[in-house]
Write a structure and sequence with these properties.
Layout (H helix, E strand, L loop, with lengths): L1 H19 L7 H4 L17 H23 L2 H16 L4 H4 L5 H5 L3 H18 L10 H23 L8 E2 L4 E2 L2 H12 L1 H7 L11 H24 L6 E9 L5 E11 L2 E6 L11 E6 L3 H4 L5 H9 L5 E3 L1 H15 L1 H17 L2 H4 L16 H12 L1 H13 L7 H14 L2 H24 L6 H17 L21 H19 L4 H7 L6 H4 L12 H27 L12 H6 L6 H12 L5 H13 L9 H12 L1 H4 L4 H11 L8
Parallel strand pairs: 3-6, 6-7
Antiparallel strand pairs: 1-2, 3-4, 4-5
Helix pairs in contact: 1-3, 3-4, 8-9, 8-10, 8-31, 9-10, 11-29, 11-31, 14-15, 14-22, 15-19, 17-20, 18-19, 20-21, 20-22, 21-22, 28-29
Length: 674
Amino acid sequence: MSKQIDQSEENDSKDVHKKVLPNLQGQKNVLKQKTLTSFMRKKNETENEADASVSAITRNIVKQTENSVKAQNISSNITTLRAAEESLVGFTNWKTAIEVGKGFSRHELSEMHLTAASRKAEKTKRIETDTSISTLVTSTVLLKRRYYFKAIVKTILFLVEHHLALRGNWDKEYHEEDGLFNSLFDFAKERDPDLVECEKFMPSNAKYTSPEIQNEIIDILAELLRESIVREVLNADVNFFTILFDGTKDRNGDEIVSLAARFVSSGKPVEVLLFFETTEDAMRILSQCYDGASVMNGYKSGVAKRLQDVLKKIIPYVHCFNHRLHLVIIHVVKQIQAVKEFFDQLQLIYTMLKKPKIKKIHEGKSMKRLIDTRWTGHKDAAKAILQNYYEFVDTFKLAVKNISKEIDGEDIAICTGILAVITRKTFVFILVCINEILSFLAPADVIFQKREIGYKRVMPVVESVKTCILELRNDKRSTLLDDFTVEETIGERSGEEEIIDVTIAELEARFSENNSILLALSNADSMDISELKPLETVGIELPSQCELNVAKKYVDRKRADHEKSNAARMVKGGKEKDLSRFNILETLYDAQEPFRNVYNLFATIETFACSTSVCECSFSSLSLVDLPNRLTMTNLRLRNLAFLGFESKRLRNTDLDEVLKKFNSSKRRKVQLY
């Protein structure tokens, strides 16, 4: 009897199912929706795909509702099955789909939708926690893969740090590349058996040593390094930084710009290279330092003016002191014809001494090339001639005699002319005068090249240089010759005075600041609030005069103790190099608690830059990468390699695990590292 009832209930269920789904067999196009893919079952190879799907759906629905039919009436079964049907086949009518209480709103409550949403959330969580199914391998395998990949990154780091090329030429005989990366990585495997063992866990098609992967790792290293520098700038002692900018051209003629930032960290000024990256908070820019090109300092539409217009704040522009000093020499040369001819003659001497046959007979010190963009070449050339004057004269005398018969007639004629020029009294006079003036300018050039030197510390040096050159104009120096008899004059006193006057005029024009803000920086050590007032216009908060007075007494006391300490070292036989230099900023940094506002003031003042030497130094790094045999690299790769090579000390602190994680998550990888 029980069996008959069960059979009857089963038949009723089937009848209900047939009534509810009378036309389901014919809806082939609807049943091809992607939502049915998880329910499809194959009966055999020849069965129609739609029929198989319908059959599978029917069996699934009947099985799920079989037990519930026993306890529910026919109408509730019909509603349940109809809802299941709608959730499976989707909607063909948009109005029905968005109707409240039906359509999508009903589908969201269906078991199938809730299950799918739950699985999607679970998958997202696994990915975020690095526990996705694709990485559910043993921890040992993951460690070996990471060990292998870190060896690749270390190899690239070594080559980049030393400005070495990664790739070489294709060896046709051995069918492999003879680049440094492959050679160095093979050498590492020879020295490290663990690396060879770890390589076995890498698929043959995912060794991660291809040029594309190398470029990707270089990009990641550059990105991480820039991010760390930006964090360092944002975490500076004070909320200000200065931007430095300069440009040059690579061997392909493309313009390469160098962007740097200056800030104060742990009581010391720091200058770092950013290239094309900068911080997002541009309102923290305190000043800007560029060369004197009109496109940069134009008062109407120059970069300096436009930056102030965009940010709607005063951002003082500082003309790079290195460029200023070079312009002084260039304008002196242009304005005085005798000086211009003198340096043209030095250039000709350098050219002749580079010829092998003349170079062979020269026994004195060699000359350096005169560079139009760097005045130090002029100084070095004049110094070499002055210190080895007679050796140069003897060289050209021997060249004119041509004892070895190896020098051709054209070179002999040129050497004859050079010999006649350098033995004139006028040439010797200008040589001595120019060498003396350029020697006075040398200390300024040295301090301008130091990256940690700020605006406040260079102005006293500039004033000292101007004073020393001005003293050359003083007649008091002639008393030094009172004990000698002057037999003959060379009649060049007026020429000397002209050179001195033009040099002083150029120094005054280019290093006399009329800007009240820059004048306030120069007088900061006085700690007089009346002289510091202009700094408020750029958003610098000034402490009270009382606090400044107490801080000044403290600094003076520390300076006296420092001088006593240095004197004691000298008494004990110490050398000058063992003496330390007193620094106000570092002194205040050690006493931040009582003098917080005063320290913030001096840290902000040290943020002002005086030169773009850090940008110019970066061009040296660029030249080490931009070699004639590496002209095919992309501009982005060239910039990244130069940037990484220049900031190599910071690059050594790169967290390799961060590199691996960024590489692992940047694309879909064949081999997962986490």
